Amino acid sequence: MNIVLNGEQHQLAAPQALSELIGSLNLSGQAIAVAVNRQIIARPQWHVYLLQEQDKVDVVRAIGGG
C-alpha cells in the first residue's frame, strides 16, 4: 500500500492505523501534529484511524523558540 508522507511516496506493507505509522517513524511520544488529506487527526484518534491507499499524510514537529 502506498501513501504520500510529507510529500514523498512511502510504502506500507499492509493497511495500518495512523498510530502504527507514527511508531514506525520513531515519533511516538513526541510533540507532533498529524494531518491526513489536509485534515488534522487528533492524537486520541490515531489508533483507530486506518490509512488508505494514496492518503496524503503530513507530520509536523512542534518547535519551541522565541
Automatic annotation (TrEMBL):
**InterPro entries from the entry?**
Beta-grasp_dom_sf, Mopterin_synth/thiamin_S_b, Thi_S, ThiS/MoaD-like
**A Pfam family assignment:** ThiS
UniProt-listed NCBIfam families:
thiS
In Swiss-Prot or TrEMBL terms, this protein is called: Sulfur carrier protein ThiS
Q: Which organism is it from?
A: Undibacterium piscinae
